[in-house]
Amino acid sequence: MIVIRYCSKTGNTKKMAELIAEKLGVKAESVATPLSGQVVDILLLGGAVHMMSLDKELKEFVKTLDPQQVKKVIMFGTSGGVMSIEKQLAKVLEKNKLNIAESRLFLHGLAPSIWHITKRQREELAKFVETVRQ
Questions:
Q1: Strand ranges (DSSP E) for 1-134?
Q2: Which residues in 86-124 are b (16+ Cβ under 10 Å) and which e?
Q3: Is 29 exposed, middle or buried (0-12, 13-18, 19+ CB in 10 A)?
Q4: Half-sphere exposure in the Cβ direction for 13 (13 Å, CA)
Q5: What element of type H or E holds 128?
Q6: How large is the angle between the packed helices 119-133 and 12-24, nearest 10 degrees?
Q7: For residues 12, 28, 70 and 107, what is the CA-based torsion angle, rounded to 10 degrees?
Q8: CA distances from 57 to 8, 22, 63, 89 (A)
Q9: Using one digit for the tens of pLDDT, what is the confidence trace for 38-53?
């Protein structure tokens, strides 16, 4: 089973999660929606840089994850600049002993609340989804 959860303050990560979900034929939901005990083969987990850091709500969600319940986590995210939550999110996932996939996607240059995804970013997203399917 593939599940998508995201934390989005400006709407950009939500839009990215929804694009991924559409291509995979699953539903994207906020981290406010718990996994409710279901066993997850792949958890696509997304977030963005907020105040130069990983969002507290995303950190709290990761703390609820059981490595026996979630087989693999694939990270994704957005950023208005060059910063990324990749390292911070990986650190929190590792601390919780979760298996992190090599495949990941972080799109940069997305201004808050303005979804201007470029052709190159759409191509990156399509390639990313293909790696998730494999």
A1: 2-6, 28-30, 40-50, 53-54, 70-79, 100-108
A2: bebbeebbeebebeeeebbbbbeebeeeeeebeeebeee
A3: middle
A4: 30
A5: helix 119-133
A6: 50
A7: -30
A8: 10, 24, 10, 12
A9: 899 999 999 986 656 6
- Please report, as a single letter, which amino acid is at residue 49: V
The residue type found at 4 is I
* Helix axis angle, 56-63 to 86-95, nearest 10°: 30
Nearest CA-CA partner of 66 in 91, 44, 35, 90: 35
pLDDT block averages, 10 residues each, the chain of length 134:
93 90 96 91 88 81 94 89 78 94 84 66 90 87
- Rounded to the nearest 5 degrees, what angle is found at the Cα of 74, between the Cα atoms of 17 and 16? 15
pTM score of the predicted model: 0.88
Token pair in block for residue 110 = 């997305």
How is residue 53 written in tokens? Answer: 């850091």
